Amino acid sequence: VPGDIVQVKNGMAEAGKTPSRSMALHQRIYQLNPHINSIICT
User: Fold this and answer.
1) CA torsion angle for 25, 20, 14, 8 (degrees, to 10)?
2) Residue 7 and residue 5: Cα distance in Å, rounded?
3) In 3D, which of 23, 14, 28, 32 has the Cα closest to residue 3?
4) What is the pTM of this model?
5) How many other CB atoms are found less than 10 A from the CB of residue 17?
6) Every domain of the chain and the residues it spans
7) Tens-digit pLDDT profile for the chain (42 aa)?
8) CA 24 to CA 2: how far, in whole Å?
């Protein structure tokens, strides 16, 4: 659902929104795998 998506840039979430608890995990995945452009969770 698009309303559930929270954009985080430079560690800052969109105003008024709270990122998922898994955000730290996703950030680490991106750090270790710079070729990855997105993560999709189901």
Assistant:
1) 10
2) 6
3) 14
4) 0.63
5) 12
6) 2-32
7) 677 888 888 889 999 999 989 989 999 999 999 999 988 888
8) 21
